[in-house]
């Protein structure tokens, strides 16, 4: 059984990881898709629903 | 020392069978070889039975769910604008708008999908900043790991699920962890196994282990059965929980265009007895799809999806609850656009003047 201090540290690490995924997940997909796409699209076409 | 030994062995084996593939094992495996032989013989015998793959436990009722419209019905107005930016690897973004629903507030949702042969990435964010995420990684043809999460600014709305699928030749195995906590091991853990026993029959079980707090644990097991007809034109499934919950389904493909499905959910617990039956049909026409459904709670519903061009679809949905005297109507459009030329999408070039 881990000590209270370790537990607290793990909880904090999980919380930070969660926050990173919360704000970083969509940008990550956009980045991966934008760089790996063939052919590479233009940015305005990517975000605008009308273009 | 050991490497020199093994290379020496390889050389000997090679001189005996120069064209055979490398099947040498380190010498310390030899005491286990009777067990290896037995295992090989057992797997050979199992392969000789030629049992089909039973499908996964998660997809046990897939055909019924895709015929019924419970998962597709909506009310109010809805628009989905999908834009494909690349076909291989797949990359597309979706803007979804929903308004005027009786049950849910108006919402805007942005989604993105990226997929290649091994990886599937999906993300969505709504106007409140709630994010849902999916990530699938295929390690080989048999092994897939799936990650699924929901992140919200409100506490208590976060969810994380980690899942691994193993697909054998005649069975499927799945393990799942929902909201696992590394510090006190709370969470929900699900394990399931489905095995083909004959050409038609597959049996399986699913065990759910719930541990909401460190001093509280609960295990429930449900049993599954699936019967697939020889020509795969009809499928019957049953799922039984010993506590008194039974779900039975039947699906039949009557023709290329028509599928029908029935679903019975039975609750026979000492405190509560309840049953719901749902009957549904789905017509798949060339440019339209029509679903109709009636259930024993007095609901009649229908959904029409009409495709005017391959890129533009119009949806109309309706539901009448005869016992509660209420009704819901929904209209929607789905527009797909692409920044790619037809050649880039892999389609033959369209001749001009048509």
UniProtKB/TrEMBL annotation, chain A:
A Pfam short name: Tom7
Keyword rRNA-binding: no
InterPro entries: Tom7
Cellular component terms (Gene Ontology): mitochondrial outer membrane translocase complex
UniProt entry keywords in alphabetical sequence: Membrane, Mitochondrion, Mitochondrion outer membrane, Protein transport, Transmembrane, Transmembrane helix, Transport
Main location, first listed in the record: mitochondrion
GO terms under biological process: protein import into mitochondrial matrix; protein insertion into mitochondrial outer membrane
Membrane topology per record: Single-pass membrane protein
Signal peptide extent: none
Compartment annotation: Mitochondrion outer membrane
Family statement: Belongs to the Tom7 family.
Protein name: Tom7-domain-containing protein
UniProtKB/TrEMBL annotation, chain B:
Compartments it resides in: Mitochondrion outer membrane
Gene Ontology CC terms: mitochondrial outer membrane; pore complex
Keyword set includes Kinase: no
Keywords: Ion transport, Membrane, Mitochondrion, Mitochondrion outer membrane, Porin, Protein transport, Receptor, Transmembrane, Transmembrane beta strand, Transport
Pfam families cross-referenced by the UniProt entry: Porin_3
GO biological process assignments: monoatomic ion transport; protein import into mitochondrial matrix
Alphabetical list of Gene3D superfamilies matching this protein: Porin
GO molecular function: porin activity; protein transmembrane transporter activity
Membrane topology reported for the UniProt record: Multi-pass membrane protein
Keyword Membrane carried by entry: yes
Family statement: Belongs to the Tom40 family.
Database matches in PANTHER family: MITOCHONDRIAL IMPORT RECEPTOR SUBUNIT TOM40
Protein name: Translocase of outer membrane 40 kDa subunit
